[in-house]
Amino acid sequence: MKIALISDIHSNAQAFAAVLEHAQAQGVSDYALLGDFVGYGGDPAWVVDKVAELVARGAVAVMGNHDAAVVQGSSSTMREDARLAVEWTHSRLNPAQLEFLSKLPLSVTREDRLYVHANAFDPAGYEYIQGRLEAMRSLHATECRYTFCGHMHEPMLYHLSLTGKAGEFTPAEGVSIPLLPNRQWLTIPGSCGQPRDGNPAACYAIFDSAASELSFQRVAYDAEAAAAQIRAAGLPERLAARLLQGE
Question: Per the database record, which ranges form the Calcineurin-like phosphoesterase domain (predicted)?
Answer without folding.
Answer: 1-209
